[in-house]
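Annex B. Sample input.
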Amino acid sequence: MRYALHAAAVLVGGLSLSPLAFAAPDWTSVPATTIHVFHPGVTPWEWIESKGKHGGSRGLSRGESCAGCHVENGEINVDLERMAGELDPKGGPAVRAFPVQVQAAYDAGQLYVRMSFKAPAGGIDKSDKDNAVKATVLFPNAEVPMAEQVGCWATCHQDARTMPDGKDKTKYTSAGAYELMQWASSGKVADGSITDQRRMEGGQAGVKAEGAKQGDTWTVTFSRKLPASSTVHFGIAVHADHAAGRFHHVSFGHTIGLGAEGDVKAKKF
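Annex B, continued. Sample output.
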């Protein structure tokens, strides 16, 4: 059978979620890639570009990527204690980093992305009372500055409202746009974008999503319109333990290969 249609409602934290609104691939036949997400501290775009604060800024100016410097054999190589100490006045969560299993598949018109992870407790911000977990995927277009190098970092700025010296601003990018898809454990699904501000609705990707917790593992499945490029740049984020704003765990920039090379190789159905 080509697709498995999830037909049963799932009870998550007392909330009854409706059945999946789309036919998803048989994920047992789709390979998974481990992508580590981590607490980034207060390291916005302005910090990334600062030669006095971030030694990797010189590499970025030469065309190197964040992942090229900080991901080695699938593991992240960053100073997590510095992120939660010197680089964050609020400290860091009890779990600084954790793995997310990412799978991708596609057919003639749709891209499917599946994330599976154990969301840790011990967060430092629990201001989202409605959602124990949120899972987000961002896709930059070619006009985003250094998108192939920095992943989602081009949306993170020091004047964002949850930064230490922030103003009343959301994520934004100086040029280009990101497509945004998000699933929240309350059942809310966002099909949005990031341009001069973040918009959680009005996106053009036709996003659908469902998620559930089985045992200690959350599994979130997204569907969206198939991107035009065979190499799809993306980044992921997980808000765990009722976290909001910048208090998420994030990935570096990665790629999905649609019949092409990629960090995550999508299976065609």
